[in-house]
């Protein structure tokens, strides 16, 4: 087992997923949730990321081949989803909650942002998935796959602890600051979505 390989793989995940950069996005997406719900969202999102990347390590390329899906097509789909979510953020509608009188105290009707868009495609997006697929293809021995799997789990734990700092940001910014960040991050996310779509289109038409 090559420790240097796993450290490099871990740092690659940090660079590609960039949980530090996603922290303001997490704050914006969970602005309508209580502290307990935000912690649960952080837990579910990072757990989903770990599961997605672990599945990708062992079966990513096979799944894409099974459904005849190219990475370019995946990029276009992910970019489109990011753009749709970004438009909702720009209009300030992401946090809208639809409840009837009987559901006044229940959170079951509240929008879930843990899996979509946090885990997929913002965190475990085309970049992270394609990177994991390439790494697992180059180092496909069982010890290497296990080592990279452990690196993914460590990343998920550290990312969850980072997201737990969101309440501190909440207290510093307040509702007005969160609303400003929500629209600003919506604009940035829309730009990211367009870039991801463009990368997918270039993959189809490299010339």
Automatic annotation (TrEMBL):
It is found in: Cell inner membrane; Cell membrane. Keywords: Cell membrane, Membrane, Transmembrane, Transmembrane helix. The keyword Cytoplasm does not apply. The keyword Transmembrane helix applies. Belongs to the UPF0056 (MarC) family. PANTHER family: UPF0056 MEMBRANE PROTEIN YHCE (PTHR33508). This is UPF0056 inner membrane protein. The lineage of its organism: Bacteria, Pseudomonadati, Pseudomonadota, Gammaproteobacteria, Alteromonadales.
């Amino acid at each position: 087992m090559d420790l240097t390989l796993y450290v490099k793989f871990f740092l690659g995940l940090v660079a590609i997923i960039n949980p530090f950069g996603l922290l303001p996005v997490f704050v914006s997406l969970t602005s309508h949730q209580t502290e307990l719900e935000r912690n649960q969202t952080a837990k579910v999102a990072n757990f989903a990321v770990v599961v997605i990347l672990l599945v990708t390590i062992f079966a990513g390329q096979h799944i894409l081949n099974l459904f005849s899906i190219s990475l370019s097509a995946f990029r276009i789909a992910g970019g489109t989803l990011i753009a749709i979510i970004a438009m909702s953020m720009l209009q300030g509608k992401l946090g809208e909650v639809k409840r009837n009188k009987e559901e006044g105290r229940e959170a079951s009707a509240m929008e879930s942002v843990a899996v979509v868009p946090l885990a997929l495609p913002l965190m475990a997006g085309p970049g992270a998935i394609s990177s994991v697929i390439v790494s697992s293809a180059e180092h496909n021995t069982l010890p290497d796959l296990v080592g990279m799997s452990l690196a993914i789990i460590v990343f998920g734990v550290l990312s969850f602890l980072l997201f737990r700092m969101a309440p501190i940001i909440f207290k510093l910014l307040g509702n007005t600051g969160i609303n400003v960040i929500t629209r600003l991050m919506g604009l940035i996310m829309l730009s990211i979505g367009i870039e991801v779509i463009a990368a997918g289109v270039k993959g189809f038409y490299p010339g």
